[in-house]
Design brief:
The chain has a four-stranded parallel β-sheet with strand order 3-2-1-4, with helices on both faces. By secondary structure, it is α/β, with parallel strands linked by helices. Strand 2, helix 7 and strand 3 form a beta-alpha-beta unit. The protein is built from nine helices and four strands; from the N terminus they run αααααβαβαβαβα.
Length: 180
C-alpha cells in the first residue's frame, strides 16, 4: 500500500493516503474516471482498471437505469421523494432526476459524513435542481430513522410527502469490493 500512497492520482490518494475506504469521494473518483479522461499517474490508472473499480462503474450505470425506470412509472399528481441511504453527494440520483425534467421529484440523501451536505448542495446547483434536494446527516437503522429523514426533507424542500416514492441504498457492494 505504500506504493499506492505515493500516487498523485485521486483514487489512490483517497484509498491509501487518506484511508477513506468506501466514502462517497472514493466512489466519485471511480465513477468520474471515464468522464474526465484524467487517470492521473500510472499507479492510479492501474488501480482504475482493476476489476473492482470497473464493476463499481457498471453497477452505477445499472443503478441509474433502475432509478430512472422506477421514477418513470410513478404518477405525476403527487410529489416524490427519492431517499438515498449512503447517498454521499447525491450525484448518482441527481443526474437521473435532472434528465427526467420532472418538477415533482425531490431528493434526500442520508449520509454519516457531514461533508456530504455542502457537496450535495453543489451537485444540486450544478444540475439546476437547487432547492429540490438535501442531505440528512446520520444513519438509517429502522422505521423511526426513515421518518426522521422524511421530516427533515419536508422541512428543507418545503413539500409534504405521502411516503418515500423511491428508496435507494448504494455503496454496499463497493465497500465489499474495496475491502476484499
Amino acid at each position: 500500500t505504500s506504493v499506492f500512497a505515493r500516487s498523485s492520482g485521486e483514487l489512490a490518494r483517497l484509498l491509501f493516503a487518506e484511508r477513506e475506504g468506501g466514502s462517497f469521494r472514493v466512489l466519485r473518483a471511480m465513477y468520474g474516471f471515464e468522464e474526465r479522461g484524467d487517470g492521473g499517474d500510472l499507479i492510479n490508472r492501474l488501480l482504475m482498471q482493476s476489476p473492482a473499480v470497473k464493476a463499481a462503474r457498471i453497477r452505477r450505470k445499472i443503478a441509474q437505469r433502475m432509478l430512472e425506470d422506477s421514477l418513470d412509472v410513478l404518477p405525476i399528481d403527487q410529489p416524490i421523494l427519492v431517499l438515498a441511504i449512503g447517498g454521499g453527494d447525491g450525484r448518482l440520483e441527481t443526474e437521473v432526476i435532472a434528465r427526467l425534467k420532472r418538477r415533482d421529484v425531490f431528493y434526500c440523501g442520508v449520509d454519516k459524513d457531514t461533508r456530504a451536505v455542502e457537496e450535495n448542495r453543489d451537485v444540486q446547483k450544478q444540475y439546476g435542481l437547487k432547492g429540490r434536494g438535501c442531505t440528512f446527516v446520520g444513519g438509517i437503522n429502522g422505521t423511526s430513522d426513515v421518518e426522521a429523514a422524511m421530516a427533515f426533507a419536508e422541512q428543507q424542500v418545503g413539500v409534504r410527502f405521502a411516503g418515500v416514492g423511491v428508496g435507494v441504498c448504494q455503496g454496499s457492494a463497493e465497500y465489499l469490493d474495496m475491502d476484499s
